[in-house]
Structure formats: C-alpha cells, structure tokens
Amino acid sequence: MNEKTTAELEHLRGLIDGVDQQLLHLLRKRLDLVAQVGTVKHAAGLPIYAPQREAAMLAKRREEAKIMGIAPQLIEDILRRLMRESYLNEKDVGFKQIKTDLGSVVIVGGKGQLGSLFQQMLKLSGYQVNILDKDDWQQAESLFADAGMVLVTVPIAITCELIREKLTKLPKDCILADLTSIKTEPVKAMLEAHSGPVVGFHPMFGPDVGSLAKQVVVVCHGRSPEKYQWLLEQIAIWGARIVEAEPERHDNAMQLVQAMRHFSTFVYGLNLCKEEADIETLLQFSSPIYRLELAMVGRLFAQSPELYADIIFAQQASQHAISDYLDNYREALALLKRGDRNEFIKQFETVAKWFGDFAPQFQRESRIMLQSVNDMKTN
Ligand SMILES: C=C(O[C@@H]1C=C(C(=O)O)C=C[C@H]1O)C(=O)O
Question: Same domain, yes or no, for 68 and 128?
C-alpha cells in the first residue's frame, strides 16, 4: 500500500469509527425508551412481546430503507436483534402479577434447570415460590398446606410415580400442574391423585432461552380450566404463545419432534466418535450448513445425558418411529449400493412435492440462519 492509500483509508476509517460511536449513542437512547415501555407495560399487565407493533414497525422501516437505498433486510436484521435485546431488558422490570390471592407456589424439582427458570419467572411476577427438591420431603406437608399451585418438574421416569404417591393430599382448590415433555400419563396421574384443578404444560424450549418472548408453551387441559385461566394469561405476559393440544396428539408429535430427532442426533455423534473424526479438520472444511449441523449435534453432548435418556425412553411408541427411520435408511442405502441414481432422483422429487411450499420457506429461513453462522466466523 502506498502512503496516499494508507492516509485515505485511515481518514475514512476514522469517519466510520465516528459513525459507529453515534450508533452506540442511538442504541443507548433506544434501550432507555424500551425500558420506559417496559415500565408502562408492567403497570398495565401487557405482554413484553407485541407482534403487531413489530410487524408494523418493520414494514415501515423496510419501506423507508428502500427509499434511502438501504437493503430492507439490513434494517430488518438490525431491528430484530434490537428487539431481542428489548425482551431481555423488559424482563428486568418484572411482570404484572395476574393472580394476587394465590397463596404460595411449590415447585417440586425446583432445583432442576427448567424448574429454576419457572421459579425466576414466577418470582419476577410477584408470586411467593417454595422449592421442594428430593431431600426436602419432610417439609412437604407444611409447604403444601398453603399452596395455591404445585408445579411438578422432575425427571420423566419418576413423574407419574411421584404424583401418585406424594401428591394426593393437596388442598382442594390447589392447582396441580406439571412441565413434563410427555403429557398423556402425567395428566392422567394428576387427575387421579388430585380432585382439584389440573393442567399439563410442555414448554417447547430449553432452560437457556433468556426470555420467554416468542417461545411456545403447550397446554393440555385437565380439570377446571376456569381456575387456572390466570396462569395462561400470566404465561402470555411473559411473551410466550400458548398452544392447546390433546395429550395424545402432543405425545404422538413428540415421537418425531423429540425422540426420533434426538436419537438420530445421538447416533450422528456416536458415529463421529467411533469413526474418530477429527472435529478440527471437519470445521476447517465445513460449509456454514455443516457448521450449523455440527453445532446442533455437538450441543446435545454439552447437556445432561439423563435428560436426553428420559426424553428418548419416555414413550414406548417412539421405538416404532425410530425403527421406521432405520428401515428407510436401509432402503435408501440399498439404492446407493446398487447405483440407482434415477430412483434416488424420483424419490427426492416425491419428498420435495410432499414438503410443498414448506421447502422454499425453510430454504429462505435457513439462508438467514446460515448468513448469521458465517457472520460469527472470526477468521
Ligand atoms: C418496545 C416494545 O416492546 C417490544 C419490543 C419492541 C422494540 O424493541 O421495538 C417492539 C415491540 C415489542 O415486541 C413495544 O411494545 O413497543
């Protein structure tokens, strides 16, 4: 580089630094305004997440960007990232308490990660929360005595037994709820053990989400929904979307969404391990989609083996879904072995047709994710 170029670059980079600093000041200003919105929402009991406002705002900014010669997707990306920050910050002011005369909440298994998250959300909403973990059963009677709600979040393998043996003497009006990732058996057990209001939940996210905004919570009604309607409202204030489901339909979906998927991820990792794949090398040669795939597989093994064993072993019927997968894998492998390229293409087209409009939709969605994966690279 000659001196002139160096000087020119230095000058321009100085100007860019100045603009970035202005951006920082603007961000500070925006965060402060959002904090004020948080306070107003808290007082009024409005949810953190306001999808209509977001959609309207994004549409306007996209239009304005176009006129200014800025890619609409650029401002959309930036605003979406800022809005994520808003959800996290609005959480700090707490949430309006919908039910003020509940009595206490007892979380059975509250030292687990999901239990801790719900404990935090309930406390941020003004509820008094007590934890009953495995060594605390001698206090159970006194804790249950003034409980307005008992929330069960223990490993799946012991959930039903615990409900049947230990939760039979709750106060009559106490709500009995659970967070187990299967629903048919736990809801049945709760209905048998307790004659008061019963409701099953399955939060469709891990404990590391940060904010519940835009997350999904599946609810399976048990008994007396009017008695726990407030809880659904409370969860909505946390920003989550409630999806109602019959326990059986939910459990069937989970055989694919959870058991089969986690199992195939497990086998993927097992295979890499047995093949003694060198992850460093794989990463060096990885495309963004492969990096994302490795991240999806690798993150499983950063978590608790017990949790995944519980999820995979929870339903007998998952074995059928997993066996079907193996059969399809074998058939596809046979195709490959006999070099039947035409049949492969035919089946590919059948599947593509079956995915229909979802295929291009998923392509668009993943394109944005892949660009973020690429952005994260540091060299
Ligand atoms: C700040 C608000 O809350 C959330 C955050 C938004 C933002 O950061 O712009 C917009 C809508 C809401 O999802 C609001 O409702 O205006």
Answer: no
Contact 54 CB / ligand 1 (< 6 Å): yes
Cα-to-centroid distance, 82 and ligand 1 (Å): 9
Q: pLDDT by residue (tens digit) across 78-129?
A: 999 999 999 988 887 889 999 999 999 999 997 888 999 999 999 999 999 9
Please tell me the distance from the alpha carbon of residue 85 to that of residue 96, in angstroms, as a whole number.
20
Asked whether 49 lines ligand 1 (CB < 6 A), one says yes
Q: Which of 67, 91, 115 corresponds to the end of one domain?
A: 91
Tell me how long the chain is: 379
Task: State which of 34, 39, 46, 75 you would mutate to test the pocket of ligand 1, scoring each by most atoms of that ligand within 8 A of its C-beta.
Answer: 34
CA of 122 to the centre of ligand 1 (A): 22
Picking from 46, 65, 91, the residue at the C-terminal end of a domain is: 91
pLDDT tens track for 228-287? 999 999 999 999 999 999 999 999 999 988 899 999 999 999 999 999 999 999 989 888
Alpha carbon distance 296, 282 (integer Å) = 15
Residue numbers of the domain that contains 279: 250-375
* 150 touches 174 (CB < 8 A): yes
Kindly report the pTM of this predicted structure.
0.88
Nearest atom in ligand 1 to the alpha carbon of residue 49 is 13
Is the Cβ atom of 170 under 6 angstroms away from ligand 1? Answer: no
What is the residue whose two structure tokens read 């969605």? 365
